[in-house]
Specification:
It is a single chain. The chain folds into 2 domains: 226 residues, TIM Barrel (Alpha-Beta Barrel), CATH 3.20.20; 66 residues, Antifreeze-like/N-acetylneuraminic acid synthase C-terminal domain (Type Iii Antifreeze Protein Isoform Hplc 12, Alpha-Beta Complex). The chain is α/β, with parallel strands linked by helices. Helices cover 30% and strands 15% of the residues. The model has no long low-confidence stretch (mean pLDDT 95). It is built from 11 helices and 12 strands. The termini are far apart. The chain is elongated. Strand 1 and strand 2 form a beta hairpin.
């Protein structure tokens, strides 16, 4: 599966920088953030496309006030989304900026009107936010566009994930990426449950990844080691910008460190490798092998005293020692000679 030019079945992990609310209400900062994300090692930049009115009501009743120990407690949902949204009139400039930087650019639409709006930019994929997984009609509409669909599973039950995969498949969209996600901001390490990543891939037969809200870069690195093919992390130019997502976002230096660590992890993973020929194994010369340790005359028997398994590894394999002891030498052999088959009398 490809997202734009990026092959998710290759050796590299797709690193997505999440812009979210980290533009501080400034188009100039949003563009600078995209440019910085490229320098920090991102492959893609992801936007969010909504307005406060497409997400909620302008209402201050109890149900609409954020609570529960979050970063945004006591704000109304409308106030939060009004502060955090990315103006739709910026999108054209942001998509163009990303293209100029060589970054993939796509977005999370939060309603059908956002999907319709985004179609004009020919995005290489769509993202479904974890809190939108229950909106099956929206998921169906996004899937119907035939673009790769990336779904954060943060608050989804197993049966809901099953439903979402079925909905996409029924729409003829098999390009599904499921991201393990903990929808806490910031998310505690003990809630990351990264072993879900390989399980998602196996259980649903899809590409799996990780949308990370933990602090730091340990979780994304571990996720890649477990097979994540997509890493999504909130990115901010400078935490001094502030905003709804700043506290759990990586700044440019941190994101660059993460990107390098992810690429190093990919190198470390390599591929399953087993050697069939010893000469192909680097350092094999430092293995033990059979060497003559006392002078041996032609016709003299090999014993535990004159033949030993020692380093280096140029002689016969030590596994032959038991079979050779008691046999006779076919020629005179000096101390320090690597034992070869032609040195052993056949009878």
């Amino acid at each position: 599966m490809k997202i734009g030019h990026f092959d998710l079945e290759g050796t590299q992990t797709l690193i997505i920088a999440e812009l979210s609310a980290n533009h501080g209400g400034s188009l100039a900062i949003a563009k600078e953030t995209i440019q910085a994300a490229k320098k920090a090692g991102a492959d893609a930049i992801k936007l969010q496309t909504y307005t406060a009115d497409t997400l909620t009501l302008k209402c201050d009743k109890e149900d609409f006030i954020v609570k529960g120990g979050t970063l945004w407690d006591n704000k109304t949902l409308y106030e939060l989304y009004q502060e955090a949204y990315t103006p739709w009139e910026w999108h054209e400039a942001l998509f163009a900026c990303a293209k100029e930087e060589g970054l993939l650019c796509f977005s999370t639409p939060f309603d059908k009107s956002a999907v319709d709006f985004l179609e004009q930019f020919d995005p290489p994929a769509y993202k479904v936010a974890s809190f939108e997984v229950t909106d099956y009609d929206l998921v169906r509409y996004i899937a119907s566009k035939g673009r790769p669909i990336i779904v954060s599973t943060g608050v989804a039950t197993l049966s809901e994930i099953e439903d979402i995969v079925r909905i996409c498949q029924k729409e003829g969209n098999l390009e599904i990426i499921l991201l393990q996600c903990t929808s806490s901001y910031p998310a505690p390490l003990e809630g990351a449950n990264l072993l879900t990543i390989p399980d998602l891939a196996k259980r649903f037969g899809v590409i799996a990844g990780f949308s990370d809200h933990t602090l730091g870069i340990t979780a994304p690195i571990a996720a890649v080691a477990l097979g994540a093919k997509v890493i999504e992390k909130h990115f901010i130019l400078d935490k001094a910008i502030g905003g709804a997502d700043a506290s759990f976002s990586l700044d440019a230096t941190e994101f660059e460190t993460m990107s390098k660590a992810v690429r190093d992890t990919e190198k470390l993973l390599g591929k399953p490798t087993y050697y069939t020929e010893t000469k192909a194994i680097k350092g094999r010369m430092f293995c033990r092998s059979l060497y003559v340790t006392q002078p041996i005359q032609k016709g003299e028997a090999f014993t535990a005293e004159n033949l030993r398994s020692i380093r280096p590894g140029y002689g016969l394999h030590p596994k032959h020692l038991g079979a050779i002891l008691g046999k006779c030498a076919a020629t005179d052999i000096e101390v320090g000679e690597a034992l070869k088959w032609e040195m052993i009398a056949l009878s």
